[in-house]
């Protein structure tokens, strides 16, 4: 594996990606206030991302364009990526917010790097091992993330259903990051990302059979999409936060490795709070600074290879 000095550019890209994802709560909240449901927002942003990627490949990558993987097993891998990084992840995360607090959801979902490390260590225990310093670094970053999210209020309001849904989202993203390892070894980032969007959209279809009222945005309320506020926010989520960020994130996982790249998820609450301070004038507390310090030190230790 590469040292931190030789991968600083990849880390910077990972930081920028997570920073953009941390800002999406503002744009999602605006869309929710304009009458869109979480499932509708997910579907529309993935449609935008898929159409753009499909068109780009068809026009500029025509000679290497392909619809399917080399084998049915690889195609099944793409389905799993679409489920864990798309439909089920977004549905469980958004549904969790309906039954538990935003703090609980953020705390549980953003702990996915720790679970990714545990699963990764068991699956690849014969080929890759983590040092005690790397494990300590991941735990320190996880602790720092908890300090940032809790912000000095060390009281959790437990909700079995909501917390279970948040934990399901956490596991989804952890497994998505792990499944990217075999995928990036055989296919291009562009192809993988397009398949993630496609199967994310395909696997969200059953949801609309159980919640038919959400279909309304595509029929009777279609004109609502052309509201400038709705359209601009959807374009940001579809083009920037989905198409570009998923492309870059899958590439970063390939370059940095699953565990090191996924550790940047710990930084998500930091960017969220910074945007809240900037746009919503929320206060930056000493707990935030302490948690941020722990996250940065922990991430450095986790990526430290030589002793």
Written overview of the protein:
This protein has 307 residues and is an all-alpha fold. The chain is built from 13 helices and no strands. Helix 2 (38-60) runs antiparallel to helix 8. The protein starts with 7 loop residues before the first helix and ends in a 5-residue tail after the last helix. The mean pLDDT is 80.
Compact description:
With 307 residues, this protein is mainly alpha-helical. Helices cover 74% and strands 0% of the residues.
Which parts are unreliable, with pLDDT below 50 for 5 consecutive residues or more? none
* Shape descriptor: globular
Into which percentage range does the β-strand content fall? under 5%
User: How would a crystallographer describe the biggest sheet?
Assistant: none
Mean pLDDT: 80
Number of strands: 0
